[in-house]
Amino acid sequence: MITFDSVTKRYPDGTVAVDALDLEIPAGKTVVLVGPSGCGKTTTLRMINRLIEPTEGKIFLDGQDIQQANPSTLRRGIGYVIQQTGLFPHRTIEDNIATVPLLNGWAKAKARARARELMELVGLDQGMARRYPHQLSGGQQQRVGVARALAADPPVLLMDEPFSAVDPIVRATLQDELIRLQGELHKTIVMVTHDVEEAIKVGDIVAVFRPGGHLAQVDTPEHLLGAPADDYVEGFIGFDRGIRRLSFFSANSLDLDSDVVLGENATVDEARALAGRGRPWVLVADAERRPRGWVSAADLASRPGTERLGQLPLVPVGHTFRPELDSLRVALDATVLSRTERAVAVESEGRVLGVTSYEQLRDAIRKAEQAADDELAQGAAT
Question: In the prediction, which pLDDT does 378 show?
Fold first, then answer.
């Protein structure tokens, strides 16, 4: 655990970057510091490894005052990932990753073997080991930076805007990779970002800073979206927080229609019978019950009754979702993007479980939000 006890950072010109900060960062969790430029989040991060010294207050790492530790020894036990990676341009990738183990006295062969293990862990091809940073893409360099920070297996990992310099697609991939790594390694991660979307995605806990180095709210992403502490936090999170909150509600709660699904060998007459019961769209599935496409009631009107559905021109299914894995937001996105205003739920092998519509989504969202609001109210009461 990392604990800030009334920590202030004041510069000689009188500027207060962080003001009387009290904050606990639980062991094994990802805590994201987010806020506007100049709010003190990066200063807070750099005080943990003493790149910046506090003016007042104390910082404890597992109960030990970090001011009592040798700064170099402290930093070697804390992984540090920065914007633009900060790799040594004259060293190969494996030697960049092996930097801290070598400083700690490891034999070169052992340190390089550790580097290659970590390359695999962060998704880098072993063939890149002897290359130099300029021979890698920005996203690959950022992975090297993460691997280097993990090389000595530190319990704490500090990340200062680690993905801000890469394009949105690579950034999303690296965020997913960080979530996967944390699921395996359970490090205590403190991450700085200016992007609230990133904070909500990767953080177990999000600390929102105000200008002047004050905390506005520290909470789980779900509670932050559901109950902003004040107008400042609500404005910082953004007007679309209701949509983003759906990411924390499982699609497993959806009621699905399975009686609108027919096999590709079913006839037009059978589909018409469904359409006659108020079903404007019928989903056609193959012999393995995997979705092939949609046929509308209007298209059925002019077709011979004995014609097989698999022979008809079908409207593409579009995006599917898996209720046991995906959120209501994913299900909503799939529905919005569907030409039929319906989305197909599938199981792990891609077979159809059922179909959802806006009406079913609305009911599921209402129930999920009510349950979450009740939980928040109970927490506030206790």
Answer: 77
Q: What pLDDT, on the 0 to 100 scale, is given for residue 340?
A: 93
Does residue 22 sit within a domain? yes
pLDDT score for 380: 67
Sites in the chain below the pLDDT cut of 50: none
Residue type, 199: A
C-beta of residue 352 within 8 angstroms of C-beta of residue 267: no
Report d(CA 91, CA 130) in Å as an integer. Answer: 9
CATH number, domain with residue 34: 3.40.50.300
pLDDT, position 84: 66
337-344: long-range contacts at Cβ-Cβ below 8 A with a sequence spacing of 24 or more? 339/294, 339/315, 340/281, 340/294, 340/296, 340/315, 342/281, 342/283, 342/294, 343/318, 343/319, 344/283, 344/291, 344/317, 344/320
- Domain residues for the domain of 346 are 252-364
- Residue 90 sits in the same domain as residue 175: yes
Check the CA dihedral 106-89-164-22 and report its sign. positive
Residues 210 and 232: beta-carbon distance below 8 Å: yes
CATH of the domain at 310: 3.10.580.10
* Residue written as token pair 């639980």: 26
Separation of alpha carbons 22 and 3, rounded Å: 7
Element (H, E) at 95: helix 93-97
308 lies in some domain? yes
- Same structural domain, 234 and 264: no
For residues 65 and 113, membership in a common domain is answered with yes
The pLDDT score that the predictor gives to residue 252 is: 93
CB 158 within 8 A of CB 81: yes
Residue type, 84: Q
Report the chain's C-alpha Rg in angstroms: 26
Asked if residues 22 and 68 have their Cβ atoms less than 8 Å apart, the reply is no
Residue with tokens 């953004």: 238
In the chain, the number of structural domains is: 2
Residue 279 lies inside a defined structural domain of this protein:
yes
47, 7 contact by CB (below 8 A): yes
**DSSP labels, 323-371:** TTT-BHHHHHHHHHH-TTSEEEEE-TTS-EEEEEEHHHHHHHHHHHHHH
